[in-house]
């Protein structure tokens, strides 16, 4: 659990990289580089500032290489204008937004189109609200269905079905709490279903093992033998 954070500067050659240091309950240093090119370092609470700085410095080459890769191959998506013709992604497939005039109705799929009917289709806020509501509804249905499917497997390992919640998260696909609740990023509904299964199974296994150590990986492998391939596929996905 994150308890505090502060900004620091990592110098590597001529580059100066700002990273945010968080003190956590983890046992090892963990560095996360997000699609928006922010760098977060999660360090054990008891590690001295000198030891943490030294550990981050040792990762400097990897951090710069990863930042360059993310910037080149995962450019930040262009902000949506919510006008006809824009592309929206659902379960790994692309759909074109089609905004039409008429009495206001919930957004719905029509073939390869995501159709929004509004009595004022020039009002971007209304169109965006309709699209957001549609994504949340699809996410609720999809996550509920695959949570049940995953729990049918994890129940054999003593993992009880948790409470499920959803919200928009900037940097994580999902999280879990000791209370037995897992939270999934609404935007996860954009990725292919085999990646959704991976994230759900990942969080379910965290209800037993709260780190990413050998016991966690062993349990995840027993529940989802091809999780590494799914994780790799998820890493290549860019959400909008």
Describe the protein's topology:
Blueprint: E1 4-12, E2 15-24, E3 30-33, E4 39-44, H1 49-58, H2 60-73, E5 87-90, E6 93-101, E7 108-110, E8 113-118, H3 124-154, E9 163-167, E10 174-176, E11 181-185, H4 193-206, H5 214-223, H6 227-235
Parallel strand pairs: 2-4, 6-8, 9-11
Antiparallel strand pairs: 1-2, 3-4, 5-6, 7-8, 10-11
What does this structure look like?
The protein is an alpha/beta fold. It has three domains: 4-73, no CATH class; 87-136, no CATH class; 141-235, Zincin-like, CATH 3.30.2010. 37% of the residues lie in helices and 27% in strands. It contains six helices and eleven strands. It has helices at 49-58, 60-73, 124-154, 193-206, 214-223, 227-235; strands at residues 4-12, 15-24, 30-33, 39-44, 87-90, 93-101, 108-110, 113-118, 163-167, 174-176, 181-185. A four-stranded mixed sheet has the order 1-2-4-3. A hairpin with a 2-residue loop joins strand 7 (108-110) and strand 8 (113-118). Helix 3 packs across helix 4 (193-206), helix 4 packs across helix 5 (214-223) and helix 4 (193-206) packs across helix 6 (227-235). It is globular and about 65 Å long.
* Radius of gyration over all CA atoms, rounded: 20 Å
CATH topology (fold) name of the largest domain = Zincin-like
**Largest beta sheet: strand ordering:** 1-2-4-3
The succession of helices and strands, N to C, reads: EEEEHHEEEEHEEEHHH
Oligomer: single chain
**Kindly state the mean pLDDT as a whole number?**
89
Indicate the structural class: alpha/beta
The second-level CATH architecture of the largest domain is 2-Layer Sandwich
Number of strands: 11
Q: How would you characterize the largest beta sheet?
A: 4 strands, mixed
Give the low-confidence spans.
Answer: none
Could you say how many structural domains there are in total?
A: 3
Shape: globular
| The CATH homologous superfamily of the largest domain | Metalloproteases ("zincins"), catalytic domain
CA-CA gap between termini? 27 Å
Number of contiguous helices: 6
CATH structural class of the largest domain: Alpha Beta
Helix content: 25-40%
Strand content: 25-35%
């Amino acid at each position: 659990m994150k308890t505090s954070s502060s900004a620091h500067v990592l110098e590597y050659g001529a580059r100066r990289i700002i990273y945010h240091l968080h003190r956590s309950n983890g046992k090892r240093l963990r560095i996360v580089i997000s699609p928006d090119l922010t760098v977060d370092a999660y360090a054990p609470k008891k590690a001295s500032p000198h030891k943490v700085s030294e550990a981050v410095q040792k990762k400097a080459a990897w951090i710069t290489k990863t930042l360059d890769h993310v910037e080149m191959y995962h450019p930040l998506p262009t902000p949506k204008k919510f006008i006809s013709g824009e592309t929206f992604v659902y379960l790994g497939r692309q759909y074109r937004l089609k905004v039409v005039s008429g009495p206001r109705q919930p957004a719905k799929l029509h073939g390869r189109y995501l159709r929004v009917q509004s009595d004022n289709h020039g009002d971007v806020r209304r169109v965006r609200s309709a699209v957001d509501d549609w994504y949340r509804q699809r996410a609720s249905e999809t996550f509920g269905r695959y949570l049940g499917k995953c729990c049918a497997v994890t129940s054999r390992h003593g993992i009880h079905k948790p409470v499920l919640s959803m919200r928009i998260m900037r940097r994580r696909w999902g999280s879990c709490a000791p209370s037995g609740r897992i939270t999934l990023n609404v935007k996860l509904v954009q990725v292919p279903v085999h990646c959704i299964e991976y994230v759900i199974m990942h969080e379910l296994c965290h209800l037993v093992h709260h780190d990413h150590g050998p016991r966690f990986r062993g349990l995840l492998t027993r529940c989802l033998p091809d999780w590494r391939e799914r994780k790799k596929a998820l890493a290549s996905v860019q959400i909008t």
